[in-house]
Amino acid sequence: MPKFAANLSMMYTELPFLDRFEAAACDGFKAVEFLFP
């Protein structure tokens, strides 16, 4: 089964950045990534 990470730069854009981590965890993601800056 493939494993995926939530890209917080593209997902949950309606939320403040720090709240996106919790949203991803609630949706079952165990890893996240984000573009810098």
Contiguous helical run count: 1
Number of strands: 2
Largest sheet: 2 strands, parallel
* Overall pLDDT level: 95
Number of domains: 1
The run of helices and strands is EHE
The helicity comes to 25-40%
Distance from N terminus to C terminus (CA atoms, Å) equals: 31 Å
3D architecture notes:
It contains one helix and two strands. The model has no long low-confidence stretch (mean pLDDT 95). The protein has a two-stranded parallel sheet with strand order 1-2. It has one domain (1-37). With 37 residues, the protein is α+β, with helices and mostly antiparallel strands. Helices cover 27% and strands 11% of the residues. Strand 1, helix 1 (17-26) and strand 2 form a beta-alpha-beta unit.
In short:
It contains 1 helix and 2 strands; from the N terminus they run E-H-E.
Question: What descriptive keywords fit this protein?
Answer:
37 residues, 1 helix, 11% strand, globular
What is the topological layout?
Layout: E1 6-7, H1 17-26, E2 32-33
Parallel strand pairs: 1-2
